Amino acid sequence: MDSKKTPIIATTQAHLDIEEIKDDLLVLKNGNVCLVIETSAVNFYLLSEIEQESKIYAFAGLLNSLGFYIQVLVHTENIDISKYLKYLDDFREKQKDPKVKYQIDIYRKFVKDLIVKNNVLDKHFYIVVPSFSWSTQKPSFTKQMFGKEVKLNNIDRIIEQSKSRLFPRRDHVIRQLSRMGLKSKQLTTADLIKLFYNIYNPMNDKLRGDFNQYTAPLVSSTMQMKPI
Question: Do 96 and 188 belong together in one domain?
């Protein structure tokens, strides 16, 4: 078979587990539904011994209180300082004193070189709360071997059924995290789209703008890499 004459119709999305992102929830291709909670973090080694013990007991209380599965995820990425650099540029334009502008230029170059040369990373912490669904139609084992996907009967119904299980679990996890002094929130649909786009496109420009305008189910174009 001539590979040059064979059209490539597969997409990256075909290899992802995500079927749809809707109502601030992730619908997976196997019918399960998940919500994602983003939480803050503390530097454990900067705490006193009493504070460390308090955090340990609070975390143990969180684990012992769970009657469902959770997944703790730490995502590391290069820190994005484009907004801060733009802020410095705008602030520089408002200055009238050439000496102040010169000092801003020096500081801007210092920040840029510090981030780029030292490869400064930013960490984000997430807790994934799943809800297992039985409203799926699974193909036979033979069809699964040849790439037949699980067919979802009704995504809207699956989401509504999952909300009654997920929302109490979400509230419980957030309460337990607050006992540890951590701030947390559930990621919205826009947050989830941005998160997964940036994870699977680490070398491209970050996804920005009004996410409600993205109506195409597939990414049909690519972005050129731009230096900071």
Answer: no
149 and 59 in one domain?
yes
Domain membership of residue 180 (yes or no) is: yes
**Strand, coil or helix: what is 126?**
strand
Who's near 49: CB < 8 A, 6+ residues apart? Answer: none
Q: What is the DSSP string of 201-212?
A: -TTSPPP-S-GG
pLDDT in tens, 52-100: 999 999 999 999 999 999 999 998 877 778 888 899 999 999 988 989 9
Nearest-angstrom CA–CA distance, 21 and 168: 20
- Classify strands 121-131 and 33-39 as parallel, antiparallel or unpaired: antiparallel
* 228 located within any domain: no
Convert the pLDDT of each residue in 10-23 to its tens digit: 556 667 788 888 89
| Residues 129 and 193 grouped into a single domain | yes
Q: What is the three-class DSSP state of 163?
A: helix
Sign of torsion over alpha carbons 108, 114, 115, 121: negative
Q: Is the pTM of this model over 0.90?
A: no
Task: Give the range of the structural domain holding residue 108, as residue numbers without chain letter.
Answer: 80-119
CB 68 within 8 A of CB 98: no
Residue 55 lies in a domain: yes
